[in-house]
Write the structure tokens for this entry.
Amino acid sequence: MKPIKRFSPATFVVVLAVYLFYTGSVSEYDIITGSTVALVVSFLIGHWLVEDELKFFSPRRWFYAVIYGFRYFFIEETKTHIDVAKRVFTLRANPGIVRIPLEVESDYGKVLVANSITNTPGTIVVDISDDGKWLYVHWIDVSTLEDREVKENIVAYFEDYARKIFD
Amino acid sequence: MKRDALVAASFLIAFIFIAYVVTVKNILGLGGEELRPLSEFYLSHAFAHEGLTSHSPEVVTAIVWNYRGFDTLFETFVFFLAIMGALSILRLDREQLEHARELEGSMPHRQMDLIVKATTKLVVVMIIAISASIALHGHLTPGGGFQGGSAMAVAALLLFAAFSKFTLERRGLTLKHTISAYAAGLALILATILAPVVLYGGKVLEINLLPGETGLFNLDVGEYTAVTFGFLTVFLILGIPEWVFKNILRRELND
């Protein structure tokens, strides 16, 4: 592969950002060493981390990611925490494992949906099918077994955002 | 049950007593505000504008690579010997490697699921950036070559777990490369240590003769490379599954 094709600007940005964030300062020395490291890494691993550079640099996707972050961490998390806290005192639980169809196509999108589900209390992703089309989720309150309703209850808007951000 | 509680309680009391005696009563002379002469020497000489100095605001690194530099140097040699020992005992020759690859390929490959793989990709790239930051700021903040290299080795282990050793080798990370990079790291350390003698007529390891922070910086980078690729070399050798290794040994016995 030609060297110039191998270079991945997105990886460069990720590495440099993490480097500066971890270092905690932006001096001349940090920028020079950070850029050197980022250059070496992005040439070494090529497009292994980010396959589509245009997607990474699309402001619309980043905008949705920020909106999703706020909506997820402040609203959804609060709601589910209150729900589970209630269950702790009332002891109302009907646990079981349900299967959820996934429509999002990219791997990172699937990871976002799965991690969002796991991070909300009451639901945990236990497995993903080999073709990546089904999630198996342990749910604290199996109130329905109908595919569509289960999905509405557990996945909610996670997948819409995952598709907007990653697909 | 009752005895466990008694043991736990007596340990708790003992620790509280020791902590009280050491910190409040200052029985060992460790506490207190005033500096002892040795610490005063290090603090005033590690980063001075004139006279003998290590040119490093980070006193720990100055001590590790300058005041007790020989100790660190020989530690690096110990690490080198350990890796050479592992290499000489566990390495496979070309024919055996071929055989190992065939055996690995013949078994149905159990892959981690895509969630683990995608997350590992991101985490590995972040660990690489962070380990580089730890190593390259070794002469400025706590950290340094060995710490950075160890963090980097964790990234390699994650890759081994989520993908496999053979995937990495197919991608071009072979023993030949890691050993060459390891040697390059050691060469940089050696060059920095001998540079004061050759260039300035000083003593071995008298790195404060070198301009500014270059001495400590080079040692940190050399140690970072050496530790990273030293660990990687060992992992690449140990990464062969046990049953493959046993199979090869058995074949050698039968021959």
Observations:
- The helical segments of chain A are 3-6, 9-23, 28-45, 53-56, 59-90, 107-119, 147-154, 158-166.
- The radius of gyration of chain A is 20 Å.
- Chain A touches chain B through 27 residues (CB under 8 Å).
- Chain A has two domains: 3-51, 58-166.
